[in-house]
Amino acid sequence: MYLTTEEEKIYNGEYGKTLAQCMQILAALGEIYDADRLIQIKSVQVAGVSYKTIGDAGLEWISGLHGRVVVPSILNPAGMDLKNWRKMGIDRAFAEKQLEIVSAYKRLDVRCECTCTPYHIYEEFAGFKEHLAWSESSAVSYANSVIGARTNREGGPSALAAALIGKTANYGLHLDENRVPTLTVKVEGRLHDADFGAVGNIAGPTVKDQVPLFKFKTIPSPEELKQLGAALAASGSVALYHVSNVTPEAKTYPDPVESISIDKKSIDSVYARRCTPDLIALGCPHLGTKELFELANLLKGRTVKKELWIFTSRRLGERHPAQIAAITNSRAKVFYDTCMVVSPASERFECIMVNSGKALHYVPSMCGVPAVLGTTEECIKTALH
Amino acid sequence: MKIKAHRISKGKASGRILLTKDAISFLGSVDPKTGIVVEKEHELEGESISEKILLFPCGKGSTVGSYVIYQLKKNNVAPAAMINLRCEPIVAVGAIMSGIPLVDQPEKNPFEILRNGDSVLVDADNEYIEIS
């Protein structure tokens, strides 16, 4: 890979150890993936935040870095609500480590807003055809597919390296040739809400890391696309998909010849009741404004009888205090900065009900708890009765 | 004898070869406190990778593996250097984070030349492996 004279100097340590290490990480990835050069990026989303995932080793590495990020950078969810962790039942030892990790990122000027949906907060972070270095799989999928921005799925250290340098290696989904759909997925039936997550869970294992082009009979909303992409990334490793007549790049390419079909019956079977939920958890990926308003309407003036946890970003919560009040007055709990998958708080329940294909996929393996899928309305109904 | 190779992570180190034809997942397969391979049925199960020149085809598994390599280094039980046939990001990033020399794509098949215990220098800066 070609490095400019300035980049060579950074690589060789003329600007200090941290930047040298960052440049070496970017260069090594460029070499591995045959990139021609480094390219400027608009923003970064850094994974590797939850103490549950990165442990003491991660904390130590981040703490040892010096400098400041040079492009807007935001964090992936942490292992707990950074303020309300006691209410989640998080123990003090975990909380202290988690807060240390967040402070270590803050020292590098990373915005300590922990969310998997940065696009719900800062529209200016990702625009059509802009290059990014994002890490969280559902955020990567949304940025590439729904916004038409360009990002590979960065690991935690490579995203942080990109943030400190302001560049990433030019390979993979940064290049037009790798954004061409390779498989058509025809989906039958009129779908809504959690159906799209279910489709993602069904298609993911077949699609693997290809670029699928979906053909739906109904037009999915951006929130439904978010559910589709999150589930596809979790059950396969899809970082970009297109939807005919919906997503911005779908028209650019011819329809792939190879195709698979998904019928309504297989979608319905994803809703099978494996257990009786004692926790209903919504907000995987983090809720956006429209979803927050919808939940506030469903819960206004009512009282939940089961544990109902709702996850979103702190910033959106602060923007919409009336909706948060409507939700918390129903005795549902709103948590920020984290989610049911990355927090150890979910591990003490027997059965978790979710409206997300991604959560349905990860809760059993990451939290050791069985999960069931319901539409948003079914989830609220279960919580109220 | 010198074998040309491709630099992934800078530095140079010498030591004894420990080789395996199995890919290595650092998360879950290597104990970060002791440097001992704990994965059942792995060719290196029970062996210590500490201070060795670790030759393996490539990494696999979770990206958290990069942090495990860093933890091995902090606990003074990391390999002295690593040689891959074809490096992937988990091992590359872990080696750079930890300052462990790493080369890949040696121009001759090292599995045909090297044996466990051979004394070897990995010079990633100058992109070669030397067998003494």
UniProtKB/TrEMBL annotation, chain A:
What's in the keyword line of the UniProt record?
Iron, Isoprene biosynthesis, Lyase
Superkingdom to which the source organism belongs: Archaea
The Enzyme Commission number assigned here is 4.2.1.182
GO: which molecular function terms? lyase activity
Q: Where is the Phosphomevalonate dehydratase large subunit-like domain?
A: 1-381
Annotated metabolic or biological route of this protein: Isoprenoid biosynthesis; isopentenyl diphosphate biosynthesis via mevalonate pathway
**What is the enzyme's class at the highest EC level?**
lyase
Query: Does this UniProt record's set of keywords contain NADP?
Result: no
Q: Which reaction does it catalyse?
A: (R)-5-phosphomevalonate = (2E)-3-methyl-5-phosphooxypent-2-enoate + H2O
Q: Which InterPro entries match?
A: PMDh-L-like_dom
* UniProt keyword Iron present: yes
GO biological process terms, semicolon-separated: isoprenoid biosynthetic process
The record's comment on protein family reads: Belongs to the AcnX type II large subunit family.
Quote the subunit structure annotation: Heterodimer composed of a large subunit (PMDh-L) and a small subunit (PMDh-S).
What is the stated purpose of this protein?
A: Component of a hydro-lyase that catalyzes the dehydration of mevalonate 5-phosphate (MVA5P) to form trans-anhydromevalonate 5-phosphate (tAHMP). Involved in the archaeal mevalonate (MVA) pathway, which provides fundamental precursors for isoprenoid biosynthesis, such as isopentenyl diphosphate (IPP) and dimethylallyl diphosphate (DMAPP).
Cite the PANTHER family for this sequence: DUF521 DOMAIN PROTEIN (AFU_ORTHOLOGUE AFUA_6G00490)
Name under which the protein is recorded: Phosphomevalonate dehydratase large subunit
User: What organism, scientifically named, is this protein from?
Assistant: Candidatus Argoarchaeum ethanivorans
From TrEMBL, chain B:
**Active-site residue list:** S62
Q: Which GO terms describe its molecular function?
A: hydro-lyase activity
Question: Start and end of every Phosphomevalonate dehydratase small subunit-like domain?
Answer: 24-103
Cross-referenced InterPro entries, in alphabetical order? PMDh-S-like, PMDh-S-like_dom, PMDh_S
Query: Which GO BP terms, alphabetically?
Result: isopentenyl diphosphate biosynthetic process, mevalonate pathway
What chemistry does it catalyse, as a reaction equation?
(R)-5-phosphomevalonate = (2E)-3-methyl-5-phosphooxypent-2-enoate + H2O
Any transmembrane segments, and where? none
Pfam families noted in UniProt: AcnX_swivel_put
Q: By its UniProt entry, which SUPFAM superfamilies does this protein fall under?
A: LeuD/IlvD-like
Lyase recorded as keyword: yes
Q: Which domain of life is it from?
A: Archaea
Q: What is its EC number?
A: 4.2.1.182
> Briefly, what is this protein's role?
Component of a hydro-lyase that catalyzes the dehydration of mevalonate 5-phosphate (MVA5P) to form trans-anhydromevalonate 5-phosphate (tAHMP). Involved in the archaeal mevalonate (MVA) pathway, which provides fundamental precursors for isoprenoid biosynthesis, such as isopentenyl diphosphate (IPP) and dimethylallyl diphosphate (DMAPP).
Q: Would you identify the family this protein belongs to, as annotated?
A: Belongs to the AcnX type II small subunit family.
Assembly and partners are described as: Heterodimer composed of a large subunit (PMDh-L) and a small subunit (PMDh-S).
This protein is called Phosphomevalonate dehydratase small subunit
Q: Which organism is it from?
A: Candidatus Argoarchaeum ethanivorans
Q: What lineage does UniProt assign to this protein's organism?
A: Archaea, Methanobacteriati, Methanobacteriota, Stenosarchaea group, Methanomicrobia
